Structures are given as structure tokens and as C-alpha cells.
């Protein structure tokens, strides 16, 4: 299988690892009414991470492991900054999948990555809306 495709999938996997770690912080910091949405998005990322790991294994490579921790892009001190972190995490995921799309040769990897990129952009928009950030949507998600 193409080393470029594996490189793209690994980049997407790294972005999923960061998102899953970050959603732990988001979930601990948002208001009670937002916690279910955070849990749902976190579960979606965990599922996608597992699918990515399988895609990587099918290509004869070992999925990159998660780190023990990651650096936050800014302090999270209240529910609004937690929602902004969630949007930032989704921007990172979108970037990881945009790279994966650019490296994908197989239809399965390309379709998987495009779907994940779209979902990340939608989640980012939702978090922007809840936190009052404008513009709600990035002009070119993942780029």
C-alpha cells in the first residue's frame, strides 16, 4: 500500500488522539446542558479512531499510539473557553483529515476521510454557535 496514504491516515489518527484527549477537558468544563453533546461527539471520535486504526492495520502498518497528554492551545477557565477548545479540536481534526484526503489513493480511505472532514466542520460550526464565535464556519475547513 502507498506510504503516502498511510502517512495521511496516521496524521488523521493523531488528530483523533488529540481530540479525544481534549474532549475530556471540554466535558469537565462545559455547563451541564452541553455535556451530552460533548459525550456524543467524543464517542464519535473514539469510533472513528478505531476505524482509522483498522484501516492502517489493513495497509500493513501499526497505528500510532496516543500520547499521555497534549498541550492546550490556550487556557480553559470557563464554559465559553471550553466550547472554544472544542471548536479548536475540530479544526485540528479537519486539518488531519484534509491531509489524509490529499494522500489517499484508495476509494475507501478517501471516502472515509472526506466524511470525517465534513463531520469535523459541522461540529466546529456547532461549537462556534454555542460559544458565540463568528464566523460560524471556516471558509475552507481543514485548510
Count of alpha/pi helices = 4
Which superfamily, in CATH terms, is the homologous superfamily?
Ferritin, core subunit, four-helix bundle
* Main sheet makeup: none
Number of β-strand runs: 0
How would the global form be characterised?
globular
The structural class is mainly alpha
Low-confidence stretches: none
The proportion of strand residues reads under 5%
Evaluate the radius of gyration. Answer: 15 Å
What is the averaged pLDDT score? 94
Which bin fits the share of residues in helices? over 70%
Give the N-terminus to C-terminus distance in angstroms: 26 Å
Textual characterization of the structure:
With 143 residues, this protein is mainly alpha-helical. The protein has a single domain (3-131), classed as Ferritin, core subunit, four-helix bundle (Ferritin, Up-down Bundle). It contains 4 helices and no strands. The protein has helices at residues 3-29, 32-58, 79-103, 107-131. Helix 1 runs antiparallel to helix 2 (32-58), helix 1 packs antiparallel against helix 3 (79-103) and helix 3 runs antiparallel to helix 4 (107-131). It is globular, with a radius of gyration of 15 Å. The two termini are 26 Å apart. The model has no long low-confidence stretch (mean pLDDT 94).
Compose a concise summary of this entry:
The protein has 143 residues and is mainly alpha-helical.
Defining traits:
143 residues; Ferritin
What does the secondary structure layout of this molecule look like, with pairings?
Blueprint: H1 3-29, H2 32-58, H3 79-103, H4 107-131
Amino acid at each position: 500500500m502507498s506510504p503516502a496514504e498511510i502517512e495521511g491516515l496516521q496524521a488523521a489518527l493523531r488528530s483523533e488522539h488529540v481530540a479525544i484527549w481534549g474532549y475530556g477537558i471540554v466535558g469537565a468544563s462545559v455547563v451541564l446542558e452541553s455535556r451530552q453533546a460533548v459525550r456524543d461527539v467524543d464517542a464519535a471520535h473514539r469510533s472513528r479512531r478505531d476505524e482509522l486504526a483498522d484501516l492502517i492495520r489493513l495497509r500493513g502498518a501499526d497505528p500510532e499510539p496516543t500520547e499521555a497528554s497534549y498541550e492546550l492551545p490556550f487556557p480553559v477557565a470557563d464554559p465559553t473557553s471550553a466550547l472554544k477548545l472544542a471548536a479548536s479540536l475540530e479544526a485540528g481534526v479537519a486539518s488531519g483529515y484534509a491531509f489524509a484526503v490529499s494522500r489517499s489513493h484508495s476509494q475507501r480511505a478517501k471516502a472515509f476521510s472526506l466524511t470525517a472532514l465534513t463531520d469535523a466542520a459541522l461540529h466546529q460550526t456547532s461549537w462556534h454557535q454555542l460559544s458565540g464565535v463568528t464566523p460560524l464556519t471556516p471558509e475552507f475547513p481543514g485548510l
